[in-house]
Each structure stands twice: as structure tokens, then as C-alpha cells.
Amino acid sequence: MSILFLLIYSVKNSTLKISLLVLGCVTYWAWLDVLLPWQNGFLTINSWAVSTKMVILVGALSPFILIGPSRGGATPVLVLLVALGSTLLVSASNYISLYLAMELPTLSLFILVSQKGGSGLSAEAGLKYFVLGALASGLFLFGCGLLCGFSGGPGFPGEELGVSRGGISGGGGLLITGALLFKLSAAPFHMWAPDVYEGAPTATNALLATVPKVGVFSILVALAPWLKAVLIAVLFSLVVGAGGALNQIKIKRLLAYSGIVHMGFVLWGIEMGSLESVQASLIYMVLYVIMAICAFAIVVVWGGQNLIVELGGLSRKEPILAITLGLAFFSIAGVPPLLGFLGKWWILLAGINYGYYLVSITAVVCSVVAGVYYVRLVKIIFFQTHAFWGVGLKALRGPQRINLGRALLIGACFYLLGLGIICPNLLFQLAHGSAVGMF
To answer: Which pLDDT score, from 0 to 100, does residue 386 have?
Structure first.
């Protein structure tokens, strides 16, 4: 109802402030679900669903801050639709509600990705995301049809077949797993991510890289997908993401490949299927959301530049931004004692405890390779001056001003990345309480 009201209100007014109010009300409603767990056949509310909803709502807050007050109209409504679909996705309890909840944010993202007016890259990115997304949706529906025909109903396997968590398998399970891996941009279903990230507006990238992935991650844990396919995706994501980013010259494409590596770590915890590994994956996903929002927020503030070389000179003009961005890149690389190191450490610890030695070695090697281009980025930020042709472009753009909302967002990310590892007990307790709801 709130979104429908905003559609009418946005005809003559800016929807940004009211959208933030709606998001706050939804957050409050999500917290109330902690006290009243329930299930009605289509949606299920438990500690796992509530925790991932809170991560989704926090991630959905960043685009409202990044788009600024000048971008009214339909954009805040579309962001709210993405948040609504993702929150329904984490609570889905059968294939019908799962498909409907998965398509709602996807259709909204089609529009947001191609919303950069006058840009051929944006139109191409929207078209590519639409075509490949339609293909993934078709595969998902076909897989759901096979599983529903086998089980005799639309419920998940653990509910109708009377089996424990451990998986949808066979042809239907493979199709569903592949479609969900596409939504996560995990290799070998990653081909859309670099092009879409490059063409989409930077604020949309912050949304695309966080909110839908949290929803798909949550439902993957609930479905317990075909584990062999997930393990293959883990290895491909680690190798393709680390190797593909080495020769990138554009910051958005590099962050897209970085996200592929992170999804490899997240999927690895899902594939192990234990309480400790699922808890480690949830911690990693939360930290990934923080790091991605921080990186994209600084790119927006610095003017939305796409070439990596344009970050040269950032430390001289905006030293605080440079330190925060360098801290974010080091955290993404897993350099101790930052929070990114904590996430990778818990995933690797779970992998070694369960005998995944080869995958652990692969993950460590790929993290070292990924660290090469993160260190290169930090070198460009602090020790490389402008390219001779880039100085003129920066002069034409003029100085960039940071408003209060963006400054608070970047400051919060800076605090969490730099000081969060000093007292991570609260994060561990919340992740443990959430993961217990799935076992």
C-alpha cells in the first residue's frame, strides 16, 4: 500500500523523503517479526528470515542516500520494490511465492540499470540483463515444474517429502541452482555482471551488488541446493573472479569481478551445509554488503569516474576519502586486522575443519592474486598523479561536494571496517542466533 501511495504521490512531488519513512516503518515491522514467528504456507518468518531482512533493508538504504534529492520520480519507488521483493524472497516457503518474490526485484532492476539517460552503455546493460535474466527465470520455472511434478506439490523438499536439509537434486534441482547462481553472479553464470555494472548508474550498482544477492543467498541456504553444482561454482568463482580482474582498467568492472570472488566464499559456506559454515557465510555476506556500499559510495562522491587511473590524486584532493577507500580495498582483499580478513578467516576455518583442503588452498591462492590488484588500486590512489589527459576532464567536471547523508554513510562504513574487528562478539551472536533458525 505504501508503494502504491508513492506512485500517486510522485506525480507532482519528490518521493525521496517519504521513501525513507516507508523504509523505516518496514524495518520496524521486520523487528516485530522476531517476537511473532509464523508460517502461512506461502511465507515463513523465523530468526534467519528476520536477520537477512535487516541486512536487506540496511543495504536498500544506501541507494536513497547516494541518488541525492535531485533524483525523484520513479527511482525511489523502484528501489522500494527491489527491497520488498527481496524481503519476501527470504520468507518464501514454496516455489510459487519464491518465483514471484524473485521476479519483483528483477523487473525493477531492469529499469534501474537502463535509467542512465543518453548512455548507450546503460541501454545495452539493461537489455543484456533483461535477456539473460529472462533465460534464468525460464530455467528456474522449468526446474520448479520438474520438482513439483515429482513431489506432487509446490512446497520445498524438507516440508512435503519429509527429508532433512540436504538438497534438491536431479534435473530440476540443477536448473533451480543454476538460475539462483545467475542471480548471485557466480561463475560460470557471471557473464552479465561486468557489462551491467559498467553501464548502470553507480547508485544502482550499490543496490545491485547487495540487496538481491542477500535475498538469493538466504533462499539458497533454505533450499539446500545441489551441492556438487555449488562446489563447482565455488571453484569457478574463485578462479574467474581473481583472474578476470587483473587486466581491468575500469573500476566498476573490477568491482564486478571482485563480487564474483566474494560469492565464491559465500557459496562455499553454503555448500558445506553445517551450522558453523552457514554462520560464517552470513557473517561474510554482512561484511561484503558493508564493503561494497563503502566502495560504491566513494566512487559516487568522487564523481562516478569509471577509469581506475582517474582515482590518481584522490589522496591530495580528498585525503579522508582516499584513506576510507584504501581501507575498503584492503578489507576486501582480506588484509588483517580489518573486517574482510575476519570473514575470510571464518570461511577458511570451517573449510579446513570439514576437510576441504584443496578448496582452501585454491581460496588462499586466489585471495593472494586478488590482493595484487587491490594493492595496485591503493598505489594509484596515494602515489600516482593524474594522467595528462585526465587532468582536463577533472577540471571540466568541477569540484565535488559531499552532502551530509553521503558523509554519514561513508563514515559509518569507515568505522565498521576499521574498528569492527575490535569487538565482533555482537556480530557473532547475531549470526549464530540466525543460523540456528535453519537447523
So the answer is: 55
**Do 388 and 424 sit in the same domain of this protein?**
yes
Q: Are 103 and 92 in contact (CB under 8 A)?
A: no
179/415 Cα distance (integer angstroms)? 36
Q: Show Cβ contacts of residue 179 under 8 Å, excluding neighbours closer than 6 positions.
A: 136, 137, 139, 140, 143
Domain range for 55: 1-223
CB 107 within 8 Å of CB 88: no
Distances in whole angstroms, Cα of residue 107 to Cα of each of 62, 84, 422: 20, 12, 41
The number of distinct structural domains making up the chain is: 2
380: Cα within 13 Å, side-chain hemisphere: 19
Phi and psi angles of residue 151, each rounded to the nearest 5 degrees, phi first: -90, -20
Assess whether 264 and 288 both reside in one domain.
Answer: yes
Which residues, 6 or more positions from 177, have their beta carbon under 8 angstroms from its beta carbon? 168, 225, 226, 229, 230
Taking the model in full, what pTM does it have? 0.88
CA dist., res. 158 & res. 84, Å (int): 25
Query: What average pLDDT does this structure show over 100-109?
Result: 88
| Structure confidence by residue, pLDDT tens digits, 198-223 | 888 888 888 999 999 999 998 888 88
Pair 130, 247 in one domain? no
Question: How long, in residues, is the chain?
Answer: 439
